[in-house]
Amino acid sequence: xxxxxxLLGMNPxxxxxxxxxxxxxxxxxxxxxxxxxxxxxxxxxxxxxxxIAAKTAQAHPKLAGTIYxxxxxxxxxxxxxxxxxxxxxxxxxxxxxxxxxxxKFGGIDILVNNASAISLTNTLETxxxxxxxxxxxxxxxxxxxxxxxxxxxxxxxxxxILNLSPPLNLNPLWFKQHCAYxxxxxxxxxxxxxxxxxxxxxxxxxxxxxxxAIYTAAxxxxxxxxxxxxxxxxxxxxxxxxxxxxxxxxxxxxxxxxENILKEEGIKNFDVYAVTPGHPLLPDFFLDEQPVxxxxxxxxxxxxxxxxxxxxxxxxxxxxxxxxxxxxxxxDSLSDDIxxxxxAIYQFELSGEDGGTWFLDxxxxxxNVGHGEPSDRADVVMSMSTDDFVKMFSGKLxxxxxxxxxxxxxxxxxxxxxxxxxxxxxxxxxx
Length: 431
Hints:
By secondary structure, the chain is α/β, with parallel strands linked by helices. 37% of the residues lie in helices and 16% in strands. It contains 14 helices and 15 strands.
């Protein structure tokens, strides 16, 4: 879970530091780890005071970091720290933490709403409790934390609210596979639209979103082992946030992409942010740089962009070629354990010899492969040439490279697409 960050008023007892955020106080929900902590440490290096408002007071068995270990890191970086146990679903806990921050440090300069919960599941597969979790943390938590801080932000000379949320993009692709999550994240972005206008001239209100996947504990859980090589470090988001904090109050109502603002600052070498420099990177959600065909259809759906679905083609008769041979080996490699670990149906639209529609069913007992469409709706549809398909399953072409170069097009659940890449790696030796 992510959370947020608040820079509070000047501390008259703190010696003057050199950084631009010196003497400011930072209130961070979720700063015990990940992007929130990275932003906290960046501000701490300037001599800022950090209020760590997060849930983790005791060590988690799988996730490193608590509000207290984060406080020690912040002090070591040159800042002051006030750890507070805060669940942003609880209005009283938010108010209490804000009051403690103001009492200790004197005001609020910057609020970063970074608290977030994620479940990349479709409508029928998203339990009500997860819907409530995402709505209450992402949208409602952002709104309530902003509301609690605004009276103090209005008194600040810096006065920034920064929501870690995406540009509002009405491409149906981003709603189709994880509607509840999209609504919850877009709620944070809509707070930017509304509050930027409501408090224009008093508080700068903006959103920040990564161009590529960022390696955090959440990404580790979504993508599994090995996903880090396709991600950037949290440092890029911290540096981008710092750039925004330097802007005047008139810089408001913007939806900022991390790489873009850093390029404006003169940054040219982004390899320094890569976990594995030179390795292809996964694009993040909600940005239409994904290789998916999007067109605007006239009239029937108003002004909303609509995905152009591939027209059904009569599948050619399967031949005993490389594709069929690959699927035969894949089928022999399947097991109940693989099916249990994957729980997805993949459909392949292949062009070229042995092409047409093929499927890999990893939901049915024991798994299944075949020519034609699967009996149940596919979770992921992949389009590519037959040559690239064979190379991909044999380990001669990395799926990420195929995806980033446009040779592989993906529709559907990206998390499940990543799971297939892991499965391919297990099968490469046999293929």
